[in-house]
Design a protein that fits this description.
By secondary structure, the protein is mainly beta. Helix content is 12%, strand content 44%. The chain has one domain. Strand 11 and strand 12 form a beta hairpin.
Length: 185
């Protein structure tokens, strides 16, 4: 009976931190340059961040409405389905060690075998907006945005506004968990 309860408890905990879908909608006239991180809130590790490319670039006016949003279904499947795929992820299992893992590493797989994917969720993006096609930053349109739930793992805001635009981060949980990062003009 104790084993059954332990297995059920682990399964419930895994579902609570299940990675879920990530969706970046860039409705702004600027290019997004940034990174994306997922982690486990209860202990801050595992933590996962894009490594290759180290800086993601999502062009201006890239969103669900025109089919150009940055969507990640999971660490593995995003490689073949995302318009902006991540080839390698930086995985931190505990300080100070981090390793580079390819998109198809077994621990990043969805489902029961994917220890890391089952115990992380999307939590933050450090970003800077740039004038389209130039690589020149829009001064002041940058921050750490993400899940603003108080914790000792990250510091970010879930809403950010400047004269050049605004951004918000929110998660909808239902039959699927979807984390949205929206950037507006």
């Amino acid at each position: 009976m104790k084993k059954i309860l332990a297995v059920m408890g682990t399964a419930v905990t895994s579902l609570a931190y299940s990675q879920g879908i990530f969706m970046l909608n860039n409705y702004s006239p600027y290019d997004y340059y940034g990174n994306l991180m997922a982690m486990n809130f209860s202990g801050c590790v595992p933590a996962v961040m894009n490594n290759s490319p180290a800086t993601m670039k999502v062009p201006a006016n890239s969103h669900m409405g025109n089919g150009l949003a940055w969507r990640i279904d999971n660490y593995r499947d995003q490689f073949s389905t995302s318009l902006y795929p991540v080839t390698n992820w930086i995985v931190t299992l505990g300080p100070p060690s981090s390793t580079i893992r390819p998109w198809n590493h077994p621990s990043l797989m969805p489902g029961p075998a994917g220890v890391i994917s089952n115990n992380t969720r999307w939590v933050t993006s450090k970003f800077q907006m740039h004038y389209p096609g130039t690589g020149n930053p829009v001064i002041g349109f940058n921050t750490n945005i993400g899940d603003a739930t108080p914790n000792s793992c990250i510091v970010s805001v879930d809403y950010f506004s400047t004269p050049n635009g605004s951004a918000e981060w929110f998660t909808i949980t239902g039959t699927e968990t979807i984390t949205y990062f929206q950037i507006y003009p």
